[in-house]
Amino acid sequence: MKSRGLSVSTTNEHPDSQRLLADPLAGSESWWQQIAQWGTPLVEPISEDKVRLTFLWREPVAGADEPTYSRVYIDVNGVTDHHSTHPETLQRLGQTHVWYWQAEVESDFRGSYSFMPVTAEHCLNLPEGTPQERRQAQRNWWISLMDLAQNDPFNHTAPHSSYRGRPLSAVHLADAIPQTAWQPIDAGQQLPTDTQRLQLITWHSELLGNSRNVWIYHTHGTEDNAERPLAILLDGQYWATRQPIFGVLDNETDAGRLPASVYVLIDIIDQPHRSVELPCNQDFWQALQTELLPQVAALQPFTDQASRTVVAGQSFGWVGLAICRITLAAAFWWCAESSPVPSGGRMLIISKL
């Protein structure tokens, strides 16, 4: 998923969620009207640097065309584990149409989330098999839920979507680092793109044996063109078309928070190519360095200093940029799903690539 932010919190604080859930009027129209006024998720401070989030989902009144839901799964970026064989689900509040889920997070949390209500036949039911077979079955099941995902209609921030097109809502807590350039977009507005500074090329890669779109954008500045920093954005089609980032980059540059730079947004072609090229694929990075970047430099010069070059990605894209960084390293370590995580801590070094 994606993280954006306002200069202020986009969720509202409620002093006592347990009292709210115990209210005899819970689930009534007046109760939901109050929720809509507050906005969700509800936020309760529980310590100096932690808060409790309460997510709420309103089940539609069952009708002839309305399914009966058995579970409402929730995916909160950086909080829930979508690899788990026991994924997080909301609880139904008594016999009402209220479903809820709570989590404790840092008070500077920012992230996206979605609800996935399912009928009985869509609930997770893993077959017998090897650990690898069960992991693959779990992954296939999770991907199948993407078409069922919903954003949160009670969230006051404008909804957005993932690179797969999954509907998402955002949480921006009060202590999160300000990202004010996104404020118009979070309010449902669009920022203009200066098309005179946007170039779309087709990268025909002999090494990879494929072709794809690449967007090149440069922001205004007084720096010598040959010294401009370079930023490479993986999943470039998302940032170029689904959630255009060009206006945000202009705003950040004009405000002096970013230097005038050259941005290269690389299309994934499709999901199968993304799954092959981004994680642990040295050929992809070799092709990028020897084929694509010289083409980009001929159109928009940039520095060759590694210290002024950035690669940004998420999920497979994050793995890809990590591989880019450590291609020449003797070893790289990452977390294995089967390894136990120490109580109260995070796993740092588990298995070797």
Please describe the topology of this protein:
Elements: H1 17-22, H2 29-38, E1 42-45, E2 50-58, E3 71-76, E4 91-92, E5 98-106, E6 110-118, H3 131-144, E7 160-161, E8 167-172, H4 183-186, E9 198-205, E10 210-218, E11 230-233, H5 236-242, H6 246-254, E12 262-266, H7 271-277, H8 282-299, E13 309-312, H9 316-326, E14 333-334, E15 351-352
Parallel strand pairs: 11-12, 11-13
Antiparallel strand pairs: 1-2, 2-5, 3-6, 4-5, 6-8, 7-8, 9-10, 10-12, 14-15
Pfam family, one: Enterochelin_N
Keywords: Cytoplasm, Hydrolase
EC number: 3.1.1.108
Summarize the structure in words:
A hairpin with a 5-residue loop joins strand 7 (160-161) and strand 8. The strands form four sheets. A five-stranded mixed β-sheet has the order 9-10-12-11-13, sandwiched between helices. The chain is an alpha+beta fold and 353 residues long. Residues 1-9 and 326-353 have low confidence and may be disordered. It has helices at 17-22, 29-38, 131-144, 183-186, 236-242, 246-254, 271-277, 282-299, 316-326; strands at 42-45, 50-58, 71-76, 91-92, 98-106, 110-118, 160-161, 167-172, 198-205, 210-218, 230-233, 262-266, 309-312, 333-334, 351-352.
Question: Which characteristics define this entry?
Answer:
single chain; 353 residues; alpha+beta; Rossmann fold; 2 domains; 5-stranded mixed beta sheet; 4-stranded antiparallel beta sheet; 9 helices; iron ion binding
